[in-house]
Specification:
6 helices, alpha+beta
């Protein structure tokens, strides 16, 4: 969770050409699956697979707010330094887990939406309470579950030795010479 002190003030909304008042407030933000789901339900596109224009990013920051009665205009009062803080928080892995870079990872061909992540959570029996975790931490847990559930692939030599052993066992069981 990231906590920011918003100064607020009188701001000009260029889209509506109106002045708005944003009250000073303490805002708590979570970059979580719940935030992504809120944003995707409004914009009807995948959050994780796109580069977003500033208006969409500010709306995502609004979705990250965990206070129920937060001023919906607070993202307009964010300073450039606060936006950098938010970006750094969102980019933080939030974990000590690392993955070796030996294997060539296949590029993502599937669009990842909140529903896909919920599916993965169901597949790996990850409690839905984890939807409140930082999204990078949740995705790391899903990746760990995927790795642990898939046995390592054998190289050609190991696979050949295993087939030869199985063939010897079958010949012995059947009393055959080949």
């Amino acid at each position: 969770m990231l906590q920011l002190q918003i100064k607020g003030g009188r701001l000009f909304n260029e889209q509506t050409e109106e002045f708005i008042i944003v009250k000073p407030a303490t805002i708590r933000l979570e970059h979580s699956l719940i935030s992504i789901q809120k944003w995707e339900s409004k914009w009807h596109k995948s959050y994780l697979s796109l580069i977003h224009p500033m208006a969409e990013m500010l709306d995502y920051i609004r979705c990250m707010a965990i206070e129920p009665n937060v001023d919906p205009n607070f993202p307009m009062a964010l300073t450039p330094m606060e936006l950098v803080q938010i970006r750094n928080y969102m980019d933080d892995s939030m974990t000590a887990t690392t993955f070796s870079g030996n294997k060539k990872e296949r590029p993502r061909k599937k669009t990842i939406t909140a529903e896909v992540i919920y599916y993965w959570m169901t597949l790996f029996n990850i409690p839905f309470d984890c939807a409140k975790w930082h999204i990078n931490q949740l995705l790391t847990l899903i990746k760990v579950c995927s790795i642990e559930n898939n046995p390592p692939k054998m190289n050609k030599k190991e696979a050949g030795a295993q087939r030869a052993a199985l063939n010897r066992a079958r010949r012995a069981r059947m009393g055959s010479s080949g």
